[in-house]
Fold this sequence. Notes:
Blueprint: H1 3-6, H2 15-18, E1 21-27, E2 39-43, E3 46-48, E4 50-54, E5 60-67, H3 72-87, E6 93-99, E7 105-111, H4 114-123, H5 132-150, E8 153-160, H6 190-203, E9 210-214, H7 221-235, E10 241-243, H8 249-262, E11 265-270, E12 278-285, E13 291-292, E14 295-297
Parallel strand pairs: 5-6, 5-8, 8-9, 9-10
Antiparallel strand pairs: 1-11, 1-13, 2-3, 2-12, 4-11, 6-7, 12-14
Helix pairs in contact: 3-4, 3-8, 5-6, 6-7
Amino acid sequence: MQFRKLLLPLILPLAMFAAENIQVPVWTPEGVALGTDGLTATIGGEPTDVLSVQAPTDDLMLLVVLDLTDDLALVEQARAALLARIESMPANHLVGVLSAQNGLRVLAEPTSDHEKVAEAIRSQQVGGRAGLLETVEEASRIGTAVMQKSGVRVAILYITDSDINNYREAFDNPTVNRSDNGDVSRRMDSLVRERMSRVSANLSKGQAPVFITHLSYRSDQLNVAYQTGMISLTAATGGNALIARSNAEIPQYVTGTVDHIIGHYSVKLAVKNPQLKKAEVALQSNAGELDYRATYLLN
């Protein structure tokens, strides 16, 4: 099935997918394998069925979203590290490439053809407006739809150098309640924090983990709030965000994040209560302590 056909489920609410099962990204201690034997799960404190466990060697679809607007030198470092890591991926690990500038656009459908992936990544020009905040919810919907339709492990990786001041939306003009001297809305970063909070809540309805590698740490108040928000919103999906403070960290963070994505298990759990609004997941295994996403909004 072509990837563009898989975009059609975007018009469907995520709750339609979440009612029957949850696919939980899980990481185990280094060198420890996770299987169905010895693995138990609860949702909301009630035992539930472990339907399947997919391992790091099983099928994977990695959706790389490029949001590159600023420093070409930093971008080239990230591109080189990303392409080198993708080159060594096995054939059952597919990579799709999308662009976040001017809306989410497909540059290359998911494929194991490394040359097509490399061409798409190299072709993305640097410049324009930042697009992460405007596209990440849509990317999450795509990832969740693909995961539910195909059953494979799916992850979303943003490579971005975005500056909060480079969005079309102005985040530096919060509403001030002048009659209230204690009005916290006067804080310069209030709009950023509010927007990141809304995005985080919406991402909690999806199931595909989102990862962000940001190529350039910025220390002004608005960007600190933006970067902190990235960490929170990726954590809500079971992913993480790494913000490079030096050029040397860029290849390390890009490679390490792809390795982390490839190394995750996907545990499918049955949702026995179709009316459940919020699922609190707990996993226990004889494989040791597990790192996993614990909270899902279902409706």
